[in-house]
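Incident log, support desk, overnight shift.

02:14 A customer reports that sequence design results differ from what the structure should imply. Their input is reproduced verbatim below. On-call engineer (initials T.W.) acknowledged and began investigating.
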């Protein structure tokens, strides 16, 4: 197996996330919500712990999730530099520590208060969301073109989540590249359209402007008979800044239902689907695990195995799907996901180093067009490139 991604290398993308993006996020959370002195002190302590010389604090043995994190490897990493442990684990544990600092899991008035809610609400209420919903009025009349438009909307909705903007900034995103670095869309639609209706799992990534087109895509699958039900996998608690929870999904359904006619129709149908069991909201604890899906528990494996297709949205889910490892980019996607219990597709804009399934010609073209100064090729992390990959499994 290729080595796991860490933040050890100077100038690397993971190191920048751990030592720059995470401290910036702590300060942003502190500004967005008027936390009391004890919570602000805890945030300050976490800020010190995430400095270049800061180390991972030991687990409180009395914490409600101490047992789970011991199973997820915490004893191996306590006392080590954040940049020395697997990047996926370090990121996940950072968000666990951030929630602890603001009292999300503890007793008292701050229990269950999402520290990312102010940003999520602003995104969902923004003018760009209005524009996206208005665009549903102008969908193509051709069924195939409508399918493609809604899939692309779901794909590119993942382009710039809130956490990504902390380091890139809106001005640094550039224009999206319309030619995908890998495109299995035709194979995905063929799989969705074959064999009659069946359950489809949709593993969500970000809330707000990304989750809206995901929900509209779910509506399309249900209305066209490709899916008998859609199981929408969400996070059981706030995670990675803008990751979607059940509360976020309900807020999106409300926003859709209050939009222009096409959006409102989708929102109202989906609300009815929830009440009648065709749109199932699920929040498995493993959705917030610092582990690859290859280590998923049996009940989650059974869920994916029963699906006609599982759609994995976003960069984090991609890293967990293929394993957060330094794969040669030409490694076949089907090889990296061979453990998966059924057909699986990845819809992802590229915002981290990990990628598989590229042809040698595509890889050469991308590497030659960017990163010629010897730095890491920015196409992997800039959020301007995307892919649709599919494996039939089995």
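02:41 Re-run completed on a clean worker. Output:
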């Amino acid at each position: 197996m290729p080595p796991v991604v860490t933040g050890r290398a100077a100038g690397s993308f993971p190191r920048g996330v751990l030592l720059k993006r995470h401290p910036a996020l702590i300060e942003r959370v502190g500004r967005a919500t008027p936390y009391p002195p004890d919570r602000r002190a805890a945030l300050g302590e976490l800020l010190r712990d995430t400095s270049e010389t800061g180390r991972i604090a030991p687990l409180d043995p009395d914490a409600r999730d101490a047992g789970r994190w011991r199973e997820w490897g915490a004893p191996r990493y306590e006392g080590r530099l954040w940049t020395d442990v697997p990047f996926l684990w370090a990121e996940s544990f950072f968000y666990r520590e951030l929630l602890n600092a603001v009292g999300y899991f503890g007793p008292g008035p701050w229990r269950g208060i999402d520290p990312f809610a102010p940003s999520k609400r602003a995104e969902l209420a923004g003018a760009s969301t209005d524009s996206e919903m208005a665009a549903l009025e102008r969908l193509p009349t051709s069924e195939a073109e409508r399918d493609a438009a809604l899939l692309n909307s779901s794909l590119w909705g993942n382009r710039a989540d809130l956490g990504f903007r902390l380091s890139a900034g809106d001005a640094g995103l550039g224009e999206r590249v319309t030619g995908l670095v890998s495109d299995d869309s035709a194979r995905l639609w063929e799989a969705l359209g074959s064999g009659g209706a069946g359950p489809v799992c949709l593993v969500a990534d970000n809330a707000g402007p990304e989750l809206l087109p995901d929900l509209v895509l779910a509506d399309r699958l249900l209305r066209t008979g490709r899916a008998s039900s859609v199981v929408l996998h969400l996070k059981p608690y706030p995670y990675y800044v803008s990751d979607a929870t059940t509360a976020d999904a309900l807020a999106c359904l409300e926003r859709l239902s209050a939009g222009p006619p096409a959006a409102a129709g989708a929102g109202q149908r989906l609300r009815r689907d929830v009440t009648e069991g065709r749109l199932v909201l699920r929040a498995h604890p493993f959705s917030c695990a610092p582990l690859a899906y290859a280590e998923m528990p049996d009940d989650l494996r059974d869920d994916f195995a029963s699906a006609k297709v599982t759609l994995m949205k976003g960069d984090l889910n991609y890293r967990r799907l293929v394993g957060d490892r330094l794969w040669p980019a030409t490694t076949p996607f089907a090889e990296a996901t061979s453990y998966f219990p059924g057909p699986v597709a990845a819809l992802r804009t590229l915002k981290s180093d990990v990628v598989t399934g590229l042809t040698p010609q595509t890889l050469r073209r991308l590497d030659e067009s960017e990163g010629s100064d010897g730095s890491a090729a920015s196409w992997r992390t800039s959020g301007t490139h995307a892919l649709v990959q599919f494996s039939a499994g089995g």
